[in-house]
C-alpha cells in the first residue's frame, strides 16, 4: 500500500518539503503546530479509505468544485489519499459493473467506508424522478448508508435541498438528513462548496480519524463558524456607511459595500471571504456581486438576491444571523465586532429609502 | 414493435437486449438499452433520461433578475451557460442593450467555459472509452517520449523520465489493489486499440489536464467571483472596472486582474495546441486505422445551431460560428433558424413522461405545457419502481422530444463545425478558421500521423470523417482551440475599448421593474458546450409568468416522437458492432461523444399555473 508520503517522496519531494506541506495543511485547517507530527504520521502510514460518492438530483457543481482543489490537488486526493471506488461522474465502469462495486465495497469495508452524497433524493413520483439502475435513488442511498462509517452531505442539495427544493418543490427533493437518521452526517453546504473546503474536510477526517467538530446544524465549525460579512475586505466601507447604490456606479468601481444591492454576507456562514475561491483567487463580493447566501438553508426562498436584507433588527444582526445560522457566535470578540456592525446596519435600515450617503 | 424504418435506419428489437443503467461519466442520470443481432451489431437503441427536477416550475412568480441564478443551477458542469441564456432572454424581453465591455467579458467567460468543459470532458469523462489505463503499464517510457515528440513537438513535458514517473505512480496505484475510479473497468477489452505507449501518453495527460483545468476557470473567478457558478447580472456584468482611479486596488477589475486573465488565456491556448488537439488527432488516427468510424447517426443528415460569437456585438451576420439548419445531408442548403417562430422549434411528449391534450402535436416553448406523467408501457419488464426493461413503444423518458420543423436534429460542437464548414465553403468570411481547422485535421488524420506512425494513409473526405464518433470528439477539440484564440481577440478588444475611454460594465436604466412594460417576452440563445441552448421567458407585472429551456441534451437525448423518429443518441448507436455486449464500451464511447448532460435536459414547466406537487403512478 502506497502512502501519501511515499507518493510525495517518489515525486522528488524531500522530507523537509513534506513536513512543510503537513504544517501548511495544519495551518489551513486552523490547527496549531502541535498537530503537525500527527499529520505527518497519518500521511506516512494510513491506507486509503474507500469513499462511495453517490449522486441524486443535483447539477454536479460539487464534483466540479472538488476537482478544482489546489491544495491538496484533486489528483493527489483521488490517487493517494482516498480510494474513490464509486463516483458515477468519474468511474470507468457503467451499468451492472458499476453497481457491483457498491456491494463489494460495502461487504469488504463494512463500517469503514465514507458515504459522500451529492444531490438529494426526490420522494414524489414514487421516487422515480431520480432513477439509478431502474430503481429510485432513495433506495440506493438508504442501502449504501447502512454500513458507512459516516456520511458527508456535499453542497446545499444534500445539506438543505437547494434549488430543486425551492418552492413549490415539485419532486419533493429532500435533504439527506431527513432520509438517513442513524449515521453521523457532516454537512458541507454551498452551491457549490469551496473546493479547498471540501478537500479540507476530507483530509481532516482521514488525518485525525475523526469527524470535525460540528455546529448545531451539522456543519464543520472549521469552515462555517464565521459570516462572510465578519471577514469581508469591504467591511470597513460598511462600517463607514459607504455603499454601492447601483451596479457600475462610482462606488462599485471603488469597491464599496454591496449591502444595499442585496449582499447576503451578513447572514451567510461560509469561508468565502477568508479562504476565497479557486485557489484563493477571488470571491463573489470581490468580483462586484453581492453574496447570494448559497450555503444557507432555503436561500432560494428568502426574496430577491438584489433586495437588501430587511429582517435585520436593531442589534439584531447577531440574533438574526444566529437564528438563521444556528451557530452560537457567543465569542466575546465576535460579539463585539457584530455589535459595531449592528449600529451601521441600523443606520442603513432606517434610511433605506433615501440615497445612502450617510456615514 | 418488431421492426420499422425511420430516418434511414431500420429499427429491429428482435435480438438480445442489453441494459446499461447507470450510464456513468456523464452529468446526471441516464439509462440506455439496445438490441443486438446475432453478430452483436446494434439494431435498436433506447435512451432514457432518468431524472427530473422541475426547475422552471420553481421559477414562476419570481423576479426575472434572479432567474439567472436559478437556471445556472440546472448544470454545474456547463456552469454559466444557462445564466448567460437567462440574462439574454430577460434583456431581449425588456429591450436592454449591454455595454461593450460587458459583452466582451461575457464572451470571454463563455469561451473559457468551452475550453474547460471540452477538455475536462475529453480527459475525465470520455478518454477511458478510448484509453486502456492498465495497458499503459506495459508501455516503454522511452518510446512514449518518442510518440509524444512526434505528435506534439512543442510540448515540453515529453521526457522518458517524466513518463516513467507517471507510470510508476500508476503501477503502485494499481498494485495497491484499490483501483478507485478505475475499478471494474473494461481493461484488456479488444475494443481498445491503442498501443501501450499511446495509452500511457493519454493517462499522463489525464493527470496534466486535471491539474491545469482548475487554473483556467479562474477567469470566471475574476469576472464572476467563483467557479462553478459564477455570478451574472441582467444589464451587463457585476465586475466594475477601475484601472487607475481612487481605490482601484480593491476594485473588481484593475490592471492586476486583467493581467491575470490574459495569462490564463495564454495557458488555454498552449494546452489546446500542445496537448488536447494532438491527443484527439492521434487517437482518431489510430481508431480510424482500426476501422472504427461508427457513431455518425443524425449528424450525417440533420444538424442545427442558433449561431454564436458575433465579432461585432448585436450583429449576428458576424457570427464566428454561424447558425442554421442542415437537413437530409445537404450542406449546400443552410436554412435559417428562428427561435421565435412558433412553427420551427417545437417539443413533443408522445414518448416522454409528460402529458399533452393532443400528443400528436408539438408546442413552441413560449406556449409549452408540462404535466408530469410517469408510467411504464405494457411491455416493460419489472415494476414501476424496479425497471428491468423499458417499453419504448410507450412513454419512456423524462426528456421531451424537441424537433425543428418536425425533424429530429443533432446539436453540439460537431453540428456547429458542420455548419461552420458549410458556411465557410460558401464564402462566409467570419468562419474561415473553421474550414482551415477541419481541413488541416483531416490532413493530419489521413496522411501526416499515419505516415509518422507507419500506418496506411487514407483518403477520407471531410464529409466522411466528421459525421462519426471520432468526428464529434474532434469537433469539440477544434472548438476548444478556436474559442481560446477568439478569447484572446476579445480580451485585446476590451483593452482597446477601455483605452478609448469606455469603462462601462452595466446598463441599469431598466434595472427598476417600474420601468418595465406590463407584459414582455424574450429569447436568449447560447452555444453551450453541448450544443444549441435556448431560454424562453414571459414576464408579467414584473414577475416571471413562464420560463422554458430547450437544452442541447434535450435535442440529442430525446426519445422517439409521435412519428416514431429517433433522437441523436439513439441514431448514433445504430448499426455499431460490439466486441462484447457484456462490456458496453462502444455504447459508452458514442454516447459520451455527445457529452450528455441529463440535469440540463430534464426540467420543464407548466405555464398554466398548475402546481405539480404529486404524480400518481399507474
Secondary-structure map with pairings?
The complex is a heterodimer of chains A (359) and B (618).
Chain A: H1 4-10, H2 15-28, H3 36-45, E1 49-55, H4 61-66, H5 74-81, E2 82-87, H6 95-108, E3 113-118, E4 131-132, E5 135-136, H7 137-145, E6 148-154, H8 155-159, E7 185-188, H9 195-208, H10 221-224, H11 235-239, H12 250-254, H13 316-325, H14 332-350
Parallel strand pairs in A: 1-2, 1-3, 3-6, 6-7
Antiparallel strand pairs in A: 4-5
Helix pairs in contact in A: 2-3
Chain B: E1 3-6, E2 9-12, E3 16-20, E4 30-36, E5 42-49, H1 55-59, H2 67-72, H3 81-94, H4 100-126, H5 141-151, H6 160-175, H7 196-216, H8 218-224, H9 255-289, E6 303-305, E7 308-310, E8 319-321, E9 324-326, E10 345-348, E11 381-383, E12 386-389, E13 401-404, H10 413-425, H11 432-453, H12 462-465, H13 469-499, E14 519-528, E15 531-540, E16 543-550, H14 552-556, H15 568-573, H16 585-592, H17 598-601
Antiparallel strand pairs in B: 1-2, 3-4, 4-5, 6-9, 7-8, 10-13, 11-12, 14-15, 15-16
- Please count the beta strands of chain A (DSSP E, at least 2 residues each): 7
The share of residues in helices of chain B is 25-40%
**Rg of chain A, Å, rounded:** 22 Å
Beta-strand percent range of chain A: 5-15%
What value does the Rg of chain B take, in angstroms? Answer: 24 Å
Secondary structure class of chain A reads alpha/beta
Amino acid at each position: 500500500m502506497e502512502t501519501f508520503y511515499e507518493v510525495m517522496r517518489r515525486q522528488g519531494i524531500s522530507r523537509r518539503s513534506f513536513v512543510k506541506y503537513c504544517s501548511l495543511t495544519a495551518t489551513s485547517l486552523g490547527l496549531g503546530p502541535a498537530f503537525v507530527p500527527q499529520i505527518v504520521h497519518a500521511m506516512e502510514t494510513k491506507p486509503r479509505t474507500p469513499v462511495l460518492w453517490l449522486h441524486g438530483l443535483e447539477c454536479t457543481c460539487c464534483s466540479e468544485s472538488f476537482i478544482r482543489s489546489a491544495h491538496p490537488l484533486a489528483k493527489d486526493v483521488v490517487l493517494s489519499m482516498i480510494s474513490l471506488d464509486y463516483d458515477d461522474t468519474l468511474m470507468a465502469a457503467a451499468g451492472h459493473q458499476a453497481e457491483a462495486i457498491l456491494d463489494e465495497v460495502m461487504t469488504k469495508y463494512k463500517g469503514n467506508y465514507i458515504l459522500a452524497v451529492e444531490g438529494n433524493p426526490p420522494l414524489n413520483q414514487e421516487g422515480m424522478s431520480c432513477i439509478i439502475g431502474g430503481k429510485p435513488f432513495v433506495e440506493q442511498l438508504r442501502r449504501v448508508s447502512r454500513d458507512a462509517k459516516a456520511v458527508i452531505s456535499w453542497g446545499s442539495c444534500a445539506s438543505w435541498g437547494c434549488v430543486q427544493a425551492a418552492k413549490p418543490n415539485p419532486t419533493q427533493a429532500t435533504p439527506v438528513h431527513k432520509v438517513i437518521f442513524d449515521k453521523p452526517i457532516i454537512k458541507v453546504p454551498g452551491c457549490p462548496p469551496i473546493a479547498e473546503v471540501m478537500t479540507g474536510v476530507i483530509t481532516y477526517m482521514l488525518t485525525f480519524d475523526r469527524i470535525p467538530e460540528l455546529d448545531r446544524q451539522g456543519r464543520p465549525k472549521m469552515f462555517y463558524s464565521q459570516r462572510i460579512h465578519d471577514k469581508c475586505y469591504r467591511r470597513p466601507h460598511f462600517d463607514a456607511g459607504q455603499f454601492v447604490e447601483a451596479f457600475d456606479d462610482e462606488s462599485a468601481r471603488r469597491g464599496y459595500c454591496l449591502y444595499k444591492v442585496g449582499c447576503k454576507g451578513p447572514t451567510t456562514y461560509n469561508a468565502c471571504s477568508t479562504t476565497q475561491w479557486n485557489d484563493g483567487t477571488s470571491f463573489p463580493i470581490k468580483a462586484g456581486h453581492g453574496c447570494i447566501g448559497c450555503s444557507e438553508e432555503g436561500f432560494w426562498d428568502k426574496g430577491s438576491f438584489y433586495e437588501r436584507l430587511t429582517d435585520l433588527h436593531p442589534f439584531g444582526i447577531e440574533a438574526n444571523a444566529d437564528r438563521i445560522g444556528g451557530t452560537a457566535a457567543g465569542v466575546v470578540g465576535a460579539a463585539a465586532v457584530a455589535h459595531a456592525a449592528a449600529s451601521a446596519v441600523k443606520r442603513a435600515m432606517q434610511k433605506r429609502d433615501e440615497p445612502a450617503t450617510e456615514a | 414493435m418488431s421492426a420499422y424504418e425511420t430516418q434511414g435506419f431500420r429499427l429491429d428489437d428482435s435480438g438480445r437486449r442489453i441494459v446499461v443503467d447507470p450510464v456513468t461519466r456523464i452529468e446526471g442520470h441516464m439509462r440506455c438499452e439496445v438490441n443486438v443481432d446475432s453478430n452483436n451489431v446494434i439494431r435498436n437503441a433506447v435512451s432514457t433520461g432518468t431524472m427530473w427536477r422541475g426547475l422552471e416550475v420553481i421559477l414562476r412568480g419570481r423576479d426575472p433578475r434572479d432567474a439567472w441564478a436559478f437556471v445556472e443551477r440546472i448544470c454545474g458542469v456547463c456552469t454559466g451557460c444557462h445564466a448567460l441564456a437567462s440574462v439574454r432572454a430577460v434583456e431581449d424581453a425588456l429591450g436592454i442593450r449591454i455595454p461593450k465591455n460587458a459583452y466582451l467579458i461575457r464572451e470571454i467567460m463563455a469561451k473559457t467555459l468551452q475550453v474547460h468543459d471540452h477538455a475536462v470532458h475529453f480527459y475525465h469523462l470520455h478518454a477511458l472509452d478510448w484509453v486502456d489505463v492498465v495497458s499503459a503499464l506495459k508501455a516503454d517510457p522511452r518510446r512514449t517520449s518518442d510518440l509524444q515528440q512526434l505528435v506534439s513537438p512543442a510540448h515540453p513535458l515529453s521526457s522518458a523520465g517524466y513518463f516513467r514517473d507517471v507510470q510508476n505512480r500508476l503501477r503502485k496505484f494499481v498494485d495497491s489493489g484499490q483501483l478507485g475510479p478505475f475499478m471494474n473497468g473494461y481493461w484488456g477489452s479488444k475494443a481498445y486499440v491503442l498501443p501501450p505507449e499511446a495509452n500511457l501518453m493519454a493517462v499522463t495527460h489525464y493527470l496534466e489536464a486535471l491539474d491545469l483545468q482548475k487554473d483556467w476557470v479562474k477567469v470566471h473567478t475574476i469576472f464572476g467571483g467563483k467557479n462553478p457558478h459564477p455570478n451574472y447580472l441582467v444589464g451587463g456584468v457585476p465586475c466594475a472596472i477601475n484601472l487607475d482611479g481612487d481605490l482601484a486596488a480593491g476594485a473588481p477589475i484593475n490592471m492586476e486582474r486583467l493581467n491575470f486573465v490574459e495569462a490564463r488565456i495564454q495557458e488555454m491556448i498552449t494546452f489546446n495546441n500542445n496537448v488536447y488537439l494532438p491527443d484527439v488527432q492521434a487517437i482518431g488516427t489510430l481508431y480510424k486505422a482500426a476501422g472504427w468510424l461508427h457513431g455518425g447517426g443524425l449528424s450525417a443528415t440533420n444538424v442545427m445551431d442558433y449561431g454564436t460569437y458575433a465579432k461585432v456585438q448585436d450583429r449576428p451576420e458576424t457570427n464566428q460560428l454561424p447558425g442554421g439548419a442542415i437537413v437530409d445531408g445537404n450542406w449546400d442548403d443552410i436554412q435559417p433558424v428562428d427561435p421565435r417562430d412558433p412553427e420551427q422549434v417545437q417539443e413533443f411528449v408522445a414518448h416522454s413522461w409528460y402529458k399533452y391534450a393532443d400528443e400528436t402535436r408539438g408546442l413552441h416553448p413560449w406556449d409549452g405545457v408540462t404535466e408530469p406523467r410517469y408510467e411504464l408501457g405494457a411491455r416493460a419488464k419489472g415494476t414501476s419502481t424496479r425497471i428491468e426493461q423499458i417499453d419504448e413503444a410507450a412513454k419512456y423518458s423524462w426528456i421531451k422530444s424537441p424537433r425543428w420543423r418536425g425533424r429530429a436534429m443533432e446539436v453540439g460542437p460537431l453540428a456547429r463545425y458542420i455548419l461552420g464548414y458549410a458556411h465557410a465553403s460558401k464564402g462566409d468570411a467570419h468562419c474561415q478558421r473553421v474550414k482551415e481547422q477541419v481541413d488541416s485535421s483531416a490532413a493530419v488524420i489521413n496522411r501526416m500521423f499515419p505516415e509518422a506512425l507507419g500506418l496506411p494513409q487514407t483518403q477520407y473526405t471531410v464529409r466522411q470523417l466528421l459525421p462519426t464518433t471520432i468526428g464529434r470528439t474532434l469537433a469539440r477539440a477544434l472548438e476548444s482551440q478556436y474559442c481560446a484564440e477568439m478569447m484572446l481577440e476579445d480580451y485585446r478588444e476590451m483593452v482597446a475599448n477601455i483605452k478609448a475611454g469606455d469603462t462601462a460594465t452595466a446598463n441599469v436604466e431598466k434595472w427598476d421593474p417600474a420601468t418595465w412594460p406590463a407584459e414582455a417576452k424574450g429569447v436568449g440563445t447560447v452555444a453551450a458546450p453541448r450544443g444549441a441552448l435556448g431560454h424562453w421567458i414571459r414576464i408579467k407585472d414584473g414577475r416571471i409568468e413562464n420560463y422554458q429551456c430547450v437544452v442541447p441534451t434535450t435535442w440529442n437525448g430525446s426519445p422517439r416522437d409521435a412519428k416514431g423518429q429517433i433522437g441523436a443518441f439513439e441514431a448514433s448507436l445504430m448499426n455499431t458492432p460490439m466486441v462484447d455486449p457484456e462490456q458496453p464500451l462502444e455504447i459508452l464511447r458514442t454516447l459520451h461523444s455527445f457529452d450528455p448532460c441529463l440535469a440540463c435536459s430534464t426540467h420543464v414547466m407548466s405555464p398554466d399555473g398548475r402546481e405539480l406537487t404529486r404524480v400518481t403512478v399507474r
